[in-house]
Amino acid sequence: MRKLSGFSLIEILIVVAIVAILSAIAVPAYTDYVRRGAVVEAFGLMGDFRVRMEQFYQDSTSTPRSYANAGACGATLPSATTRFTFACVMDTTGGAPPGQSYTLTATGVGPLSAFRFTINEANTRRTTGMPSDWGAAPVNCWVRAKGGVC
After folding, report:
1. In DSSP terms, which residues pair with 87 in a beta bridge?
2. What is the domain count for the chain?
């Protein structure tokens, strides 16, 4: 009599169940990890824009500031990426002198569309939109992880 070798149906089902349990834990953790890595891209580009705006203000000698040749906010906006788009608005209601108050907004694209971050001339950083599992917006900082971690 020949002995058959291989896996029984029960053994295969046990392996499938273990893989399913591990996947149920790993996929959400990995997705969150990717989100945390993606939002940092926006923070870097927004911080760079703020520095360029300060340089623009230092170099500009007209009062009020003239933006006719330099774009809506003076410095060139960060280039849109595959994850975020950027917009800058001059703010006439802020506490800064006319022509010196702005708000830069980064808005998420695709899977990051729930994210929205802002920064202004006073370096006030706000999270005005984020996924509900990360917390409630608005928050007076740039949220970097679930639970409203800044």
Report:
1. 105
2. 1
Q: Residue 36, Cβ neighbours under 10 Å: how many?
A: 15
3-state secondary structure 9-50: HHHHHHHHHHHHHHHHHHHHHHHHHHHHHHHHHHHHHHHHHH
**pLDDT tens per residue, the chain (150 residues)?**
677 778 889 999 999 999 999 999 999 889 889 989 999 999 999 999 989 888 887 776 544 445 444 456 777 888 878 999 999 887 666 555 556 778 899 999 999 999 999 998 888 999 999 998 888 888 899 999 888 888
Between the alpha carbon of residue 33 and those of residues 30, 51, 73, the distances in Å are 5, 28, 33
Flag whether 1 is in a domain: no
Q: Supply the range of the domain harboring residue 16.
A: 9-134
Any domain includes 2 = no
Whether this model's pTM surpasses 0.85: no
> CA 90 → CA 16, 67, 98, 102, 103, distances in Å?
57, 10, 9, 4, 7
Residue 143 within any structural domain of the chain:
no
